[in-house]
User: What shape does this take?
Amino acid sequence: YAQLFARLLTENDFVVLNEVIFNQVIISCETEQLTQKTLALVQQSGECWCGGSKWHNKSVIRISLCSWATTEQDVRRSVGVFVKARSQAVES
Assistant: This one.
């Protein structure tokens, strides 16, 4: 599901920074500020959880898919939250 998550985020103009091999997806938006605002809004949504991190000294969002109960529907719903959060961050 990490590869699906990465593909769907890429299709929605997020930048996937790592080679998705197992369960980690590292993403960013167009700017560090937009990445940070998007992360905060995703976390506030309560729909899914992800953390912030640094990648080559830049702010990123770290997504870790680690529950055996995660479904494709969960991934698609979570991607929708990311898209909505970024839109809200752009507007604010």
In short: The radius of gyration is 12 Å. The first strand starts at residue 15 and ends at 16. The chain is about 50% helix and 20% strand. The first helix runs from residue 2 to 11.
